[in-house]
Amino acid sequence: MIHPFANVCFVGEVKNPGKTIPKTLISGTSTVAVLYILTNVSYLAVLSPQEIISSDFIAGIWIDRVCPFMQWVISLVISLSILNSTVCEILSASRVIYSASREGQLPFLFSMLNNHSCPVVAVTKIIILSSVVIIPSNLIKLIKYLMLASSLVEVLYTIALLKLRYREPHLHRPYKVNQNNGFTFLLALHE
Question: How far are the Cα atoms of 77, 138, 182, 187 from residue 191, in angstroms, in the given order?
């Protein structure tokens, strides 16, 4: 029997998850951490603490001081980042629907793939439902509700992981994470 949470991280599509997933997590997390540290150091080098605290758009003030003719580049980079994040969320949500369909929890229609191994029906469903929700609503409230729902889902995933580790300790897992990480994550969210 395949466990319901086996495909949440899409381990079934990775050739060697025991090596690939830790490598990508470590390299991706360290790259993002270095970029954030360098960005904050550059802000502190150019702007005063009062300017940073009082500003709603720190990158805009920073670029005005460093390179004023490149203001459009910051706007473009932020827009591309938002677009990239949206595409990633759509594709990951469609893969969850695809996995649930493969396990028989949703209709078989959602597990159909096109020639490029993309679950087009699931992607279409996510885009239609997202459009229906976004068009008539207040976007700021919607973002707050989505962040709350996302945090709740992450907590439920972590609780399910800890429960599985406790109830079925001998279940085959392609890669293992220290159980204390789950408890640390839950405690960090509590704060």
Answer: 32, 28, 15, 7
